[in-house]
Structure formats: structure tokens, C-alpha cells
């Protein structure tokens, strides 16, 4: 029997002699590789912390001692050792375990994560609570990566931690990379000062933390030793370890960007399995964005690009390659990215700031105070808008319509397909739309021949795609393509008109008046939360002009959608193309 099969939870682990843990680390790595090869998910980060994970659960008394994993994409080993080995094959599947720590899933998941740089604040909160509640023996540990510790929240928390006199241990897992290589002065400080442990000018010691390191994070006996020593030391402390992302799988070590989340691969050879593109599909929306921006930047010298730590994911990397001086990866720093864009715009440049919809949530005040209020011309390219699939509730980009449309001076639009995305990106530099957000989803678009000559889209103008005589369907974004396919198969195709509204703000008031005059019913459709979204905006307008017909809003219910394939999540919301067709038939 394998050692790993004997571990139901960390108390089993703690019964093992320390000498057997190196064998266990091999088994744990192999287990992660086996499952992720077939089921997909985040790989490199978990492989890099196998020794750390074993050492932490061996030395500390989890779950009584609190352990938080920043971002949480590196917590697969933690899940496997804490009661979820048998369920691990369900990782990120609908109804299965989450790909991130989740409080409702296990008492060992002390804090839910997914977005970066939260762990130090959260663990400090727990440590302060322990002190107030008289739990003086409890230990509090946060594991944070070299890219995540550069995030503003982490710095804010370190500032507090250093004067807190709490029982907190921060483990800085330094593998010199985030998803893409880490950037910035802190990265240079960490990688350039191999002897920052010598006490001279050590940033962390200067912030009042007891510091140990840099230490080899793959030396399991060494780690256990250090953690045992640190567990006996009171006060805030930081252990700096160096690890290799992807450790134990050659390809993952050599190609760390791709093997961050590689998709399916051969568990024996490590080679990626080919992805089968569906016939008739176009490139990913991200690539349409990335390549179009390069074309536009060549035409317009005022264009610059910004990404907070997602050059590959957002495809801003193409601009970084073509115009290195005009593209900025600022690291995990969404708030800085937005205000940086404001500064560039204030000087007359046109920043295209590519941010995942879910991560822009973090920079809401910057968006209002630094950009919109000052009427600055910044183009927010809101990637991963709508349901994102297996990353789940921490990552769905479903709130942006609601949180953006209430901001004065904003223009908010969504392309129905890749050509429209291309034309929107073109239009916002040809004409001044002010502060703009263009939202588009994760993954493949339709239309292989998307690179057509640019056509300007006038601000606030939707378009009629099909006339009808009873019910108007007003779609926003790519789900409009489903409508175009569904309508001919409804019970009465002539009944339905179809409008691609393109803009949530400003709404196309002229077109809406026309629609209200011509149709007895209106249906809206969006890949976003219904509460306060596009449908709400249309309903508010129709109410203001005294529309007497029925309005049906189709969108996501007032809940956090779980993780799973996007098609499954649409099914749960009654929003697959088939579901929508049924709904439309019922309205006739
Ligand atoms: C606020 C926020 N921005 C961006 C991301 C996307 N993201 C997930 S993991 C990651 C890199 C994390 O790097 P690091 O902290 O060094 O951990 P490692 O992957 O190297 O273990 C990024 C940018 C995120 N999860 N949260
Ligand atoms: C953990 C994290 O936040 C990222 O790795 C995220 O999973 C990336 O999502 P995409 O795969 O959509 O780029
Ligand atoms: Mg890292």
C-alpha cells in the first residue's frame, strides 16, 4: 500500500516518521500529475509546494492552527492531504471539489481564496481574533507567492503586521514567476539579494518581521526543521523559501508559463495533448484583442497597453513583443494599473487596459475617482466577462455590467462576435468615447475570417439583425449568436425580431423607442447578473417611456454560480440555447 493511501488527514501524516516524508512527497507529486493530466487544472504551482505542504501539515496542528494559501491555485497537495484525496478526480468539475480553498468544503480551508494578495490581511485578522479570544497558543500561517506579495493589499497587510505582535508566520514562496515571469523592483530585490538573510538592509526585518531564509523549499527535512523552530517563536515572522514552479515534471519546469494550467497532457511523457478546434470557429477573443491592438498601435502612436500580470492570458503579450516601450505589465496590481492608465490618459495617450472582469472589481474606486470622474479617455478591455467555467465563483466575470453602468461618464459595450470586437477596439481610438469598457468572454470566437477592414461603430448605436412582428429579443454580447441560430427553429420565426444592442451605456434610445412602438413583448439576454444589469437598464428605459408590453429579462440569477463547464453552468441557469428556445416558444 502506498504511503499516500494511508493519509486521510494530517493526523495520519503526523504519525509517520519524518524519514518517510520524502517518499511521500514523490507519491503526492505523482498523484497530482496523474489527476491533473486527465482532468486539467493548475499544475505548476502545486508541484512547486509539495515539500512545503507536507512540512506545514506535519509541523503545525491544522486545522486548529490556521493555514491560508494565497490565490489557492497551489493548494492541490493541501486538499489531497486533508480528506479530499478520493474526491480529487472531481477537482473543478460541476458538483466536485473546488480548484481553490473554500471554507464550506473543509475545516482545513481556513479562508477562501482565488484572487491574489489577500492572505496576509486575512491571517492577521485571524491572529488578532485569536488574541482577543484568548487562544494564545494558536499559530497562523499564510503562504504567498513572489508575484502575489507584490500586490498592494499584501503590502498594506505587511505594514500592519509588523506592529501587530501577533503569532503570524508568512511563508514567501519565491519561484521568480507568477503566471508569466514576475516583474518589478521587488522581484529584482528578491532575486538579486541571495543574502538578504544576513540582516543588512533586509526589507522584511526593517518592517519588524523576524526573517529566515532564503531557504531551499524542496529540502523537506530542512523545511521541517525550520518550521519547528519558527513554531516556537512568538511574534510576526517571515520565512523566505525558493522553489521551482512545476518541480518534478520536466516540461513543467522548462515551460512554466504553459504548465501553469496546461490543459490535458500525457501523464507519462508530460507532453501536451492536442486541442481539437471546432470547425468554423475563429481565434480566442483574447487573440482578436491582442492582434488588433498591435495593428491599431501601428496606426496610432498614442495607443499604449497595460496588463496587471496577465500578458499571456489577456494576449497583451503581442503588443509587448511588437512595441515593448508602449506596453506595461505592472504585476498583480489592478489598482495601480487603473490609476497608471489615468495618468497616461491625462497626458493625451490612449491606454488600453486589459483586465479580467473579476479582477477589475479590486480597482473600483480607482475607476470612479481617478478615471471616470476626471473624464479620462481610458479603454478598459474587460476580459473573461461572463461565466468563465471551471475556475468558478471567484473568477466569474458576471458583475461588471451592474457595477459599471451606474458610473457617470462610462461607455459600456459588448461585441456579439470577433469582428465587432475588432471594430469596437478601432472605434474607441478613432473617436473619443471617454471612459470605455468593452467586455468579451473567455475563449474561442466564431468567424475564422475575422480580420476584415475596420468599420467604425457610432457611440451608443445598436443594430437590427432581424425584423419580427410580436416579440423583440435584445441581446448583449456573444449569446446573441445563439439567438440568431435559435430563431429560425422557434414555433413562429416571424414573430421574433432580433437586435444586437452593443451598448449598455449609453443605451440606444432611438432604437429602443422604435422597438417599443413595434413589439408587444421584449426579451433581453445577457451573460451577466440580472440584478442591475443590461436587462434592468432596458427595463428602466422602457418604464420611463411608458411601455405597456411585457418585458422578460434573461441573465444570471442572484447567486454565485459554481464551478463547472460553461455549458453546464448555463444549463443550471436555464440559459443554454435549447433552454432559451423553450422560453421563447413559451412567450408566443
Ligand atoms: C487579483 C488577482 N490578479 C490576478 C490574478 C491571476 N493570477 C492567478 S495566479 C497568478 C500568479 C501568482 O504568482 P505567485 O504569487 O508568484 O504564485 P505562483 O503561481 O508562482 O505559485 C496570477 C497573476 C489573481 N488570481 N488575482
Ligand atoms: C489562479 C488564477 O487566477 C489564474 O490562473 C486563472 O485561473 C486564469 O484563468 P484563465 O485560465 O482564464 O486565464
Ligand atoms: Mg511565483
Automatic annotation (TrEMBL):
<dbReference type="GO" id="GO:0000287">
    <property type="term" value="F:magnesium ion binding"/>
</dbReference>
<dbReference type="GO" id="GO:0008661">
    <property type="term" value="F:1-deoxy-D-xylulose-5-phosphate synthase activity"/>
</dbReference>
<dbReference type="Pfam" id="PF13292">
    <property type="entry name" value="DXP_synthase_N"/>
</dbReference>
<feature type="binding site">
    <location>
        <position position="175"/>
    </location>
    <ligand>
        <name>Mg(2+)</name>
    </ligand>
</feature>
<comment type="similarity">
    <text>Belongs to the transketolase family. DXPS subfamily.</text>
</comment>
<dbReference type="GO" id="GO:0005829">
    <property type="term" value="C:cytosol"/>
</dbReference>
<feature type="domain" description="Transketolase-like pyrimidine-binding">
    <location>
        <begin position="283"/>
        <end position="448"/>
    </location>
</feature>
<dbReference type="GO" id="GO:0019288">
    <property type="term" value="P:isopentenyl diphosphate biosynthetic process, methylerythritol 4-phosphate pathway"/>
</dbReference>
<keyword id="KW-0786">Thiamine pyrophosphate</keyword>
<dbReference type="Pfam" id="PF02779">
    <property type="entry name" value="Transket_pyr"/>
</dbReference>
<feature type="binding site">
    <location>
        <position position="175"/>
    </location>
    <ligand>
        <name>thiamine diphosphate</name>
    </ligand>
</feature>
<dbReference type="InterPro" id="IPR005475">
    <property type="entry name" value="Transketolase-like_Pyr-bd"/>
</dbReference>
<dbReference type="GO" id="GO:0009228">
    <property type="term" value="P:thiamine biosynthetic process"/>
</dbReference>
<keyword id="KW-0414">Isoprene biosynthesis</keyword>
<dbReference type="InterPro" id="IPR009014">
    <property type="entry name" value="Transketo_C/PFOR_II"/>
</dbReference>
<dbReference type="GO" id="GO:0016114">
    <property type="term" value="P:terpenoid biosynthetic process"/>
</dbReference>
<dbReference type="GO" id="GO:0030976">
    <property type="term" value="F:thiamine pyrophosphate binding"/>
</dbReference>
<comment type="subunit">
    <text>Homodimer.</text>
</comment>
<dbReference type="InterPro" id="IPR029061">
    <property type="entry name" value="THDP-binding"/>
</dbReference>
<feature type="binding site">
    <location>
        <position position="334"/>
    </location>
    <ligand>
        <name>thiamine diphosphate</name>
    </ligand>
</feature>
<keyword id="KW-0784">Thiamine biosynthesis</keyword>
<feature type="binding site">
    <location>
        <begin position="147"/>
        <end position="148"/>
    </location>
    <ligand>
        <name>thiamine diphosphate</name>
    </ligand>
</feature>
<keyword id="KW-0479">Metal-binding</keyword>
<keyword id="KW-0460">Magnesium</keyword>
<feature type="binding site">
    <location>
        <begin position="114"/>
        <end position="116"/>
    </location>
    <ligand>
        <name>thiamine diphosphate</name>
    </ligand>
</feature>
<comment type="pathway">
    <text>Metabolic intermediate biosynthesis; 1-deoxy-D-xylulose 5-phosphate biosynthesis; 1-deoxy-D-xylulose 5-phosphate from D-glyceraldehyde 3-phosphate and pyruvate: step 1/1.</text>
</comment>
<feature type="binding site">
    <location>
        <position position="73"/>
    </location>
    <ligand>
        <name>thiamine diphosphate</name>
    </ligand>
</feature>
<feature type="binding site">
    <location>
        <position position="146"/>
    </location>
    <ligand>
        <name>Mg(2+)</name>
    </ligand>
</feature>
<dbReference type="InterPro" id="IPR033248">
    <property type="entry name" value="Transketolase_C"/>
</dbReference>
<dbReference type="InterPro" id="IPR005477">
    <property type="entry name" value="Dxylulose-5-P_synthase"/>
</dbReference>
<comment type="function">
    <text>Catalyzes the acyloin condensation reaction between C atoms 2 and 3 of pyruvate and glyceraldehyde 3-phosphate to yield 1-deoxy-D-xylulose-5-phosphate (DXP).</text>
</comment>
<keyword id="KW-0808">Transferase</keyword>
<dbReference type="Pfam" id="PF02780">
    <property type="entry name" value="Transketolase_C"/>
</dbReference>
<protein>
    <recommendedName>
        <fullName>1-deoxy-D-xylulose-5-phosphate synthase</fullName>
        <ecNumber>2.2.1.7</ecNumber>
    </recommendedName>
</protein>
Amino acid at each position: 500500500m502506498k504511503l499516500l493511501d494511508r493519509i486521510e488527514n494530517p493526523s495520519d501524516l503526523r504519525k509517520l516518521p519524518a524519514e518517510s516524508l520524502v517518499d511521500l512527497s514523490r507519491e503526492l507529486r505523482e498523484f497530482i500529475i496523474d489527476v491533473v493530466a486527465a482532468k486539467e487544472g493548475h499544475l505548476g504551482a502545486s508541484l512547486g509546494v509539495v515539500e512545503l505542504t507536507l512540512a506545514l501539515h506535519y509541523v503545525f496542528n491544522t486545522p486548529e492552527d490556521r493555514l491560508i494559501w494565497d490565490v489557492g491555485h497551489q493548494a492541490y497537495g493541501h486538499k489531497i492531504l486533508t480528506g479530499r484525496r478520493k474526491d480529487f478526480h472531481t477537482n473543478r468539475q460541476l458538483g466536485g471539489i473546488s480548484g481553490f480553498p473554500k471554507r464550506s468544503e473543509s475545516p482545513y480551508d481556513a479562508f477562501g481564496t482565488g484572487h491574489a494578495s489577500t492572505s496576509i490581511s486575512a491571517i492577521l485578522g485571524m491572529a488578532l481574533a485569536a488574541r482577543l479570544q484568548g487562544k494564545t497558543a494558536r499559530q497562523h500561517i499564510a503562504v504567498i507567492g513572489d508575484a502575489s506579495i507584490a500586490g498592494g493589499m499584501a503590502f498594506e497587510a505587511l505594514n500592519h503586521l509588523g506592529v501587530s505582535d501577533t503569532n503570524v508566520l508568512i511563508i514567501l514562496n519565491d519561484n521568480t514567476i507568477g503566471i508569466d515571469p514576475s516583474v518589478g523592483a521587488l522581484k529584482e530585490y528578491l532575486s538579486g539579494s541571495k543574502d538578504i538573510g544576513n540582516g543588512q538592509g533586509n526589507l522584511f526585518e526593517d518592517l519588524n518581521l523576524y526573517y529566515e531564509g532564503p531557504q531551499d523549499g524542496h529540502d523537506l527535512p530542512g523545511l521541517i526543521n525550520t518550521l519547528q523552530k519558527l513554531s516556537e517563536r512568538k511574534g510576526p515572522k517571515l520565512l523566505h523559501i525558493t522553489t521551482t514552479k512545476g518541480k518534478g515534471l520536466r516540461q513543467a519546469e522548462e515551460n512554466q508559463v504553459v504548465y501553469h494550467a496546461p490543459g490535458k497532457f500525457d501523464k507519462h511523457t508530460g507532453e501536451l495533448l492536442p486541442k481539437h478546434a471546432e470547425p468554423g470557429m475563429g481565434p480566442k477573443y483574447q487573440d482578436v484583442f491582442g492582434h488588433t491592438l498591435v495593428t491599431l498601435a501601428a496606426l496610432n502612436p498614442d495607443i499604449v497597453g497595460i496588463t496587471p500580470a496577465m500578458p499571456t492570458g489577456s494576449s497583451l503579450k503581442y503588443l509587448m513583443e511588437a512595441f515593448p516601450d508602449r506596453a506595461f505589465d505592472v504585476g498583480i496590481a489592478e489598482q495601480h494599473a487603473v490609476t497608471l492608465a489615468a495618468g497616461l490618459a491625462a497626458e493625451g495617450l490612449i491606454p488600453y487596459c486589459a483586465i479580467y472582469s473579476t479582477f477589475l472589481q479590486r480597482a473600483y474606486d480607482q475607476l470612479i475617482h481617478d478615471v471616470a470622474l476626471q473624464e479620462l479617455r481610458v479603454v478598459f478591455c474587460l476580459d473573461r466577462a461572463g461565466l468563465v467555467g471551471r475556475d468558478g465563483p471567484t473568477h466569474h466575470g458576471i458583475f461588471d455590467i451592474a457595477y459599471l453602468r451606474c458610473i457617470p461618464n462610462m461607455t459600456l459595450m459588448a461585441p456579439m462576435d470577433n469582428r465587432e470586437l475588432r471594430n469596437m477596439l478601432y472605434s474607441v481610438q478613432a473617436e473619443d468615447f471617454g471612459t470605455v469598457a468593452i467586455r468579451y468572454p473567455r475563449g474561442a470566437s466564431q468567424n475564422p475570417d475575422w480580420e476584415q477592414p475596420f468599420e467604425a461603430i457610432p457611440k451608443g448605436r445598436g443594430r437590427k439583425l432581424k425584423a419580427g412582428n410580436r416579440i423583440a429579443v435584445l441581446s448583449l454580447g456573444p449569446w446573441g449568436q445563439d439567438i440568431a441560430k435559435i430563431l429560425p427553429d422557434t414555433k413562429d420565426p416571424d414573430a421574433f425580431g432580433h437586435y444586437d444592442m452593443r451598448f449598455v451605456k449609453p443605451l440606444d434610445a432611438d432604437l429602443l423607442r422604435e422597438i417599443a412602438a413595434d413589439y408587444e413583448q421584449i426579451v433581453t439576454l445577457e451573460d451577466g447578473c440580472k440584478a442591475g444589469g443590461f436587462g434592468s437598464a432596458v427595463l428602466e428605459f422602457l418604464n420611463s417611456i411608458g411601455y405597456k408590453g411585457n418585458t422578460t429579462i434573461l441573465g444570471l440569477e442572484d447567486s454565485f454560480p459554481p464551478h463547472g463547464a460553461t455549458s453546464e453552468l448555463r444549463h443550471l441557469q436555464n440559459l443554454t440555447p435549447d433552454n432559451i428556445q423553450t422560453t421563447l416558444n413559451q412567450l408566443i
